[in-house]
Specification:
Largest sheet of chain B: 7 strands, mixed
Radius of gyration of chain A: 13 Å
Low-confidence stretches of chain B: none
Helix content of chain A: under 10%
Number of helices of chain A: 0
Number of strands of chain A: 9
Distance between the termini of chain A: 38 Å
Distance between the termini of chain B: 37 Å
Strand content of chain A: over 45%
Mean pLDDT of chain A: 93
Order of helices and strands of chain B: EEEEEEEEEEE
Number of strands of chain B: 11
Oligomer: heterodimer
Strand content of chain B: over 45%
Number of helices of chain B: 0
């Protein structure tokens, strides 16, 4: 599965959009981009995933570049409860589901 | 969404004792569950993949005789840390597979402290 690169940390003002980038330049055609987050001392939470089209759900939007080498997770109106570590993971379709977590991005939402 | 529970949420034990952690899928059947370990200020590390009715598959470097995994039913997997030592103190998290191959539902975690 392709390796991902994320910034170590980011800040965002409460109520503003949080845009979290992820680089996955070695992604293959059958690999999906998954996003999870982990609030302090809790288990991770699934956010969203996509292959090549942009995706949106009640939590976030996922924008994948046309060449699929990078993506951005967008939290449209960040709240203090969105403060967490956000993980971008690339996973091959049909994979047994083994998620390999990198260091992720620590997002701090500030009042 | 699907709910996964873990029990206990925290445990303190003496060195040399064994500790069992339960992971349950509450409203769905999970043929595959995963066990992770997380040390302070570090990311999650996958320990093993647990399949119902068969032996678990351990990641490289994880001792299968020390971390016993049993997945006897479609809703329950257990992790037993045998002869625990202080270096086994960690946050243990389980997850169960969802419909998409990379979609997993995580439990709240179990914090183990070995004295």
């Amino acid at each position: 599965d392709a390796k991902t690169t994320q910034p170590t940390s980011m800040d965002c003002a409460e109520g503003r959009a949080a845009n979290l980038p992820c680089n996955h330049s070695t992604i293959s055609g059958n690999e999906y981009v998954y996003w999870y987050r982990q609030i302090h001392s809790q288990g991770p939470q699934y956010i969203i995933h996509g292959l090549k089209n942009n995706e949106t759900n009640e939590m976030a939007s996922l924008i994948i570049t046309e060449d699929r080498k990078s993506s951005t997770l967008i939290l449209p109106h960040a709240t203090l409860r969105d403060t967490a570590v956000y993980y971008c993971i690339v996973l091959r379709s049909g994979n047994t589901g083994k998620l390999i977590f990198g260091q992720g991005t620590t997002l701090q939402v500030k009042p | 969404g699907a709910v996964v529970s873990q029990h206990p949420s925290w445990v303190i034990c003496k060195s040399g004792t064994s500790v069992k952690i339960e992971c349950r899928s509450l409203d769905f059947q999970a043929t595959t569950m995963f066990w992770y370990r997380q040390f302070p200020k570090q990311s999650l590390m996958l320990m093993a993949t647990s399949n119902e009715g068969s032996k678990a598959t351990y990641e490289q470097g994880v001792e299968k005789d020390k971390f016993l995994i049993n997945h006897a039913s479609l809703t329950l997997s257990t992790l037993t840390v045998t002869s625990a030592h202080p270096e086994d103190s960690s946050f243990y998290i389980c997850s169960a597979s969802g419909r998409a191959s990379g979609e997993q539902f995580f439990g709240p975690g179990t914090r183990l402290t070995v004295l």
